[in-house]
Write a structure and sequence with these properties.
Layout (H helix, E strand, L loop, with lengths): L10 E6 L7 E7 L2 E8 L6 E7 L4 E2 L4 E6 L2 E6 L4 E7 L5 E8 L1 E9 L14 E9 L2 E11 L5 E7 L4 E5 L1 E6 L2 E6 L4 E7 L5 E8 L1 E10 L22 H11 L1 H6 L10 E7 L2 E7 L8 E2 L4 H14 L28 H5 L26 H11 L13 H14 L4 H13 L10 H4 L28 E2 L1 H12 L8 H9 L3 E4 L2 E3 L4 E3 L5 E6 L4 E7 L4 E7 L9 H14 L9
Antiparallel strand pairs: 1-4, 2-3, 2-10, 3-4, 4-5, 6-7, 7-8, 8-9, 9-10, 11-12, 11-19, 12-13, 13-14, 15-16, 16-17, 17-18, 18-19, 20-21, 20-29, 22-23, 24-25, 25-26, 26-27, 27-28, 28-29
Helix pairs in contact: 3-6, 3-7, 3-10
């Protein structure tokens, strides 16, 4: 549930095992990105294909490491640092899985069904484009309408400048010249009249207050707003914490007007900054200082600290095989090296991003029905042998397994382990997995990539990978402990220091401790996170003695993670470096 940046997602699929079920065209949505997967079987018998990111206008990035084992399918996309893994349905019509560039995002492909178009199109069939003026911004809205041989009308809606693509319509009706449709995903509707010329639809969009929205007929699809590469402003002298709020007010002006924090988005952010022992919390949008957010994969750093606490308290050892912390008989002892607790905490276990028996019943809450029994079923089949050349491979499965294994050893649950070993010793009263009734009232409403209200996530067997909720205040206290372990009590000083020991390389400029990622050029320890409705970014720098937490009540968009960008921007302002601009 973490990633640094959402890149262009186009890749070539090749080298899969032969199966006639995986031939054809498939469609999927990754957040706001509309993807098309085209599979074919060449003379070699292997399956090949391409994936197009229709909305971004790019095609054919090569894939690698394709693997089809029974129903389990996976492949890498080295050019964007991403992976897809999942399961093939019995009839080959559905590929259910996840895309990961650090952050795990559900990505399901469905085979396209031939559409039997009407022999005589309806008067409103075609492509329509309009401009909606809302909140001081002009937003392009595109709809595609088609009718089948039975005369039934279908349509989809694209908000081109917000990255909300292929939103399905319902109740599509044409009565004489009166045309109307609803868009349940955003709780909106349009109704109006087809002009006599047949080339104009004049009417009203309703999503709260009614707004005029006139469509004109088009001959081709308009492209969505392309993701912008990051741009940097000129460096300014290091900003002292006392002056940071006024600097952020200026730097966030565009985002507050028509970007990620515009009133129309519902977006709000809580920012916590700690510098030389002084702490400040700033909020923008419909957020209060004590608002609670899902922190996504920043949870992994808590799981790393739980592991360190249990090591210091002599309850486990870093080199303990994870197999020994599972129920007896769960998985056989492998020949040769096996996965240890340290391997899981440093993302060097060789485990995939997600288990191949991860088949969510509800994609709005995809982890809710993945129970310990499912996890043990997967491990029994996959085994716990560690590959000889195991390199860094970001795995929600791995850290989720670590959290479950540690809870097993302590004869408790992950939420209770979090409370006993981290939250209570650090007095983090709002850092929990399950919210109390009072905390529910402070739980910020989350939003999906198209700014629509979105469902929070519930994690069970994989709780250690992303289940924690917290506030900016609690997270600052947590980061202060990371900066100054010696100021904590009990076994925490030794445990926190253990988390910061750099164990393995990730890339030429990045290393990893117990879950914390470390940038060698800046001296920053960091981790980010995202769920379906929230995103976060946590950073601390012991040498410069500062820390930053950003909690945002929206998931990532086609332009990447706003929480990441804002967190990096603040660190750059504090250290006097050129700062990435906050326009998204």
């Amino acid at each position: 549930m973490t990633f640094r940046c959402l890149s262009v997602l186009l890749y070539t699929v090749a080298g899969m095992a032969q199966t006639p079920k995986l031939v054809g065209d498939y469609s999927g949505m990754l957040g706001p990105l509309h993807l098309k997967l085209h599979l074919k079987t060449p003379a070699t018998g292997a399956i090949e294909g391409t994936l197009d990111s229709v909305d971004q206008g790019a095609m054919g990035l090569p894939g690698a490491n394709f693997h089809l084992d029974g129903k389990a399918l996976s492949f890498d996309v080295p050019s964007v640092g991403g992976k897809w893994h999942g399961a093939v349905s019995d009839d080959g019509a559905t590929l259910t899985g996840s895309w990961s560039q650090g952050q795990e995002i559900p990505l399901v492909f469905n085979r396209d069904q031939p559409f039997a178009a009407a022999e005589k199109p309806s008067p409103v069939d075609g492509i329509w484009l309009g401009t909606l003026s809302a909140g001081g911004a002009n937003l392009r809205v595109q709809t595609q309408v088609k009718s089948d041989r039975a005369g039934k009308l279908y349509c989809s809606l694209n908000s081109l400048d917000q990255g909300a693509m292929d939103l399905a319509c319902e109740n599509v009706q044409l009565d004489g010249s009166r045309f109307s449709f609803e868009v349940p995903a955003v709780k909106g509707s349009w109704s109006g009249t087809l002009a006599e010329s047949g080339n104009e639809l004049a009417g009203t969009w309703t999503q709260g207050a009614p707004l005029p929205l006139r469509f004109t007929r088009q001959t081709s699809l308009a492209k969505p707003k392309a993701p912008e590469p990051p741009k940097f402003g000129e460096a300014m002298p290091p900003v002292p914490l006392a002056d940071l709020k006024s600097v952020l007010d200026r730097d966030l002006a565009e985002a507050l007007k028509d970007g990620a924090l515009a009133p129309s988005t519902g977006g709000g952010v809580a920012i916590g900054v700690l510098q030389h022992g002084t702490r400040r919390i700033f909020t923008y949008g419909p957020i209060k200082e004590d608002s609670i957010f899902e922190i996504g994969s920043v949870t992994k750093t808590f799981t790393g600290l739980i592991l360190a606490q249990m090591v210091v308290q002599h309850k486990v050892k870093l080199d303990d095989p994870v197999r020994e912390l599972l129920p007896p008989g769960t998985v056989a002892k492998p020949d040769g090296a096996e996965i240890t607790l340290l391997d899981l905490a440093t993302q060097h276990s060789g485990l995939p991003r997600m288990p191949d028996n991860f088949n969510p019943a509800d994609l709005q809450d995809p982890y809710a029905d993945y129970r310990p029994a499912n996890l043990y079923e997967y491990l029994a089949k996959h085994g716990v042998s560690k590959p000889a050349d195991a390199k860094f491979n970001y795995s929600n499965l791995g850290v989720g397994l670590l959290g479950q294994a540690l809870a097993n050893r302590a004869a408790t649950t992950y939420p209770d382990l979090l409370k006993t070993l981290v939250a209570e010793p650090l007095k983090l009263n709002d850092t929990v997995v399950k919210l109390s009734p009072e905390q529910e009232k402070r739980f910020a409403q989350g939003h999906g990539p198209g700014h629509q209200p979105a469902h929070p996530w519930t994690l069970d067997a994989l709780a250690g990978a992303g289940a924690v909720r917290s506030t900016a205040g609690d997270m600052l206290t947590y980061l202060e402990a990371q900066l100054h372990p010696d100021r904590t009590a009990g076994t925490l000083p030794a445990a926190l220091a253990m988390c910061h020991d750099l164990r393995s390389d990730m890339s030429p400029n990045m290393k990893i401790g117990l879950a914390w990622l470390f940038e060698t050029d800046t001296g920053n320890f960091w981790h980010n996170g995202a769920t379906g409705a929230y995103s976060s970014y946590a950073l601390f720098n012991p040498k410069e003695d500062f820390a930053v937490i950003v909690l945002f009540n929206a998931t990532v968009s086609g332009n990447g993670s706003f929480a990441d960008t804002l967190g990096q921007h603040i660190a750059q302002r504090l250290t006097g470096k050129p700062a990435v601009l906050l326009r998204n």
